């Protein structure tokens, strides 16, 4: 029984998404640290702590946001996502709220510790508090607003890059590559929200959620998805030329670009088809993971 309960608590966090987000922190540190190589960087035990704690902060805040999102989406998820832990009865509303508080308290404690041992002090926990607030606001109100909620997801899902850079640099000293990755990744991640809105039209109509798909139809939502995913992919591609990325960066970015073209063609061909919506959503997630891996392997190889 305990194992089943633990599985449910892990599931409500959406751990794969949380891990991907945690790697944005790791990559932000890789790009920002001043040491000549990674081995030199991790010879300092403080830096090892920064890697682990930074990863956990993003993992816990993202997981907590997903838990509170499911708390507020309980009635909608009965229609759109009946297999999630709360609507299927494996986690109660009270338990999901308690879990949200627990995860965020642990994340904030870690952020306070990082603030004590890095250059930006109080700014680190304040940023974490701000994004915890944004996560709650999104779940409570902003998600129902449609496009503003979509943008919030995109902006917050990629914030690990500049957040990690602040462990080492003052804000004005953050490398320009970090900001470029953050902007491109935010735009790219926003594109997936339009597809998710298409998948959730049935429940969203009942509860008057203002997604693009619900307000303007599948074709318009597809246009938004194609536009945002294409702009994101183009921005990543331009980094090859502006930042002199190596061959490993280039290979991964080209693979991601090919996936983006494929998923866009797939969804344009029949945006109403639930199967194509599901495949497109999955392909966006895969392309996003590949783009993260581009900067991970590009650093080490």
TrEMBL record:
Does this UniProt record's set of keywords contain Membrane? Answer: yes
Q: Which residues cross the membrane?
A: 12-32, 38-62, 97-116, 147-168, 216-241, 247-267, 279-300
Sorted alphabetically, which keywords does the UniProt record give?
Answer: Membrane, Transmembrane, Transmembrane helix
Q: What is its main location?
A: membrane
Q: Which GO terms describe its molecular function?
A: geranylgeranylglycerol-phosphate geranylgeranyltransferase activity
Q: How does the record say this protein sits in the membrane?
A: Multi-pass membrane protein
* Keyword Transmembrane tagged: yes
Official protein name in the record: UbiA family prenyltransferase
Source organism of this protein record: Promethearchaeum syntrophicum
């Amino acid at each position: 029984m305990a194992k089943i309960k633990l599985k449910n608590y892990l599931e409500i966090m959406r751990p794969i998404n949380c891990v991907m987000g945690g790697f944005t922190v790791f990559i932000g540190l890789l790009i920002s640290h001043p040491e000549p190589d990674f081995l030199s960087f991790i010879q300092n035990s403080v830096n090892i702590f920064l890697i682990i704690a930074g990863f956990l902060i993003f993992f816990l805040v993202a997981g907590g946001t997903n838990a509170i999102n499911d708390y507020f989406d309980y009635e909608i998820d009965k229609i759109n996502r009946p297999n999630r832990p709360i609507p299927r009865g494996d986690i109660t509303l009270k338990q999901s709220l308690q879990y949200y508080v627990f995860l965020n308290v642990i994340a904030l404690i870690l952020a306070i510790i990082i603030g004590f041992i890095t250059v930006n002090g109080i700014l680190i926990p304040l940023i974490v508090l701000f994004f915890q607030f944004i996560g709650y606001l999104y779940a409570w109100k902003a998600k129902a607003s449609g496009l503003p909620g979509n943008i919030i997801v995109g902006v917050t899902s990629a914030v690990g890059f500049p957040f990690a850079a602040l462990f080492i640099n003052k804000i004005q000293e953050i490398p320009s590559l970090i900001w470029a990755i953050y902007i491109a990744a935010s735009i790219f991640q926003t594109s997936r929200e339009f597809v998710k809105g298409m998948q959730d039209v049935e429940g969203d109509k009942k509860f008057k959620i203002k997604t693009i798909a619900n307000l303007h139809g599948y074709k318009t939502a597809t246009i938004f998805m194609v536009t945002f995913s294409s702009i994101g992919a183009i921005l990543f591609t331009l980094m090859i030329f502006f930042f002199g990325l190596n061959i490993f960066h280039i290979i991964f970015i080209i693979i991601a670009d090919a996936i983006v073209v494929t998923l866009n063609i797939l969804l344009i061909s029949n945006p109403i088809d639930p199967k194509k919506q599901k495949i497109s959503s999955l392909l966006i997630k895969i392309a996003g993971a590949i783009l993260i891996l581009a900067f991970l392997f590009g650093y080490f190889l």
